Amino acid sequence: MAIDPEFEQSYEQIGENDDVAIWSPDGEELTEEKQGIHGTHVAVDFDICLADGACLEDCPVDVFEWVDTPGHPESEIKAHPTHEEQCIDCMLCVDVCPVDAIDVDPSRAGRI
Ligand code: SF4
């Protein structure tokens, strides 16, 4: 399963972490096991991310930082798009993610 590029339709923004939006399916409460999507311009589905790390290695402008997600069934760290405002839309992270957990759409950033 890949990240839903239309997540704005089916998810609700329920908060922020370091000025990065947190989106939950249908606005339901998030848990250790259900982490939702983090980011808007650069969106990472934490429930798919398995901490491969290719996005951190390849991003030319260091958008991502590791965050701890203890208890999550896929991985206990995740690639958080902490500096998504620096993104230059090269799409490298989208291409290298082995589980298609990342979607980048610059037009989305201005819609919230
Ligand atoms: S699209 Fe490029 S610049 Fe933007 S987060 Fe991904 S790798 Fe970094």
Automatic annotation (TrEMBL):
Positions contributing to Zn(2+) binding: H38
InterPro entries: 4Fe4S_Fe-S-bd, 4Fe4S_Fe_S_CS, Fd_Zn-bd, Fe-S_Ferredoxin
Protein name: Zinc-containing ferredoxin
Domain (4Fe-4S ferredoxin-type) ranges: 40-69, 78-107
Cofactor note: Binds 1 zinc ion. Binds 1 [3Fe-4S] cluster.
Pfam families found in the cross-reference section: Fer4
Region spans: Disordered: 1-21
Binding site for [4Fe-4S] cluster: C59, C87, C90, C93
Job description of the protein: Ferredoxins are iron-sulfur proteins that transfer electrons in a wide variety of metabolic reactions.
GO molecular function terms listed in the Swiss-Prot or TrEMBL record: 3 iron, 4 sulfur cluster binding; 4 iron, 4 sulfur cluster binding; electron transfer activity; oxidoreductase activity; zinc ion binding
Biased composition (Acidic residues): 1-19
Binding site for [3Fe-4S] cluster: C49, C55, C97
UniProt entry tagged with the keyword Nucleotide-binding: no
Keywords: 3Fe-4S, 4Fe-4S, Electron transport, Iron, Iron-sulfur, Metal-binding, Transport, Zinc
Record field: transmembrane: none
UniProt organism field: Halovenus carboxidivorans
Cofactor (UniProt): Zn(2+); [3Fe-4S] cluster; [4Fe-4S] cluster
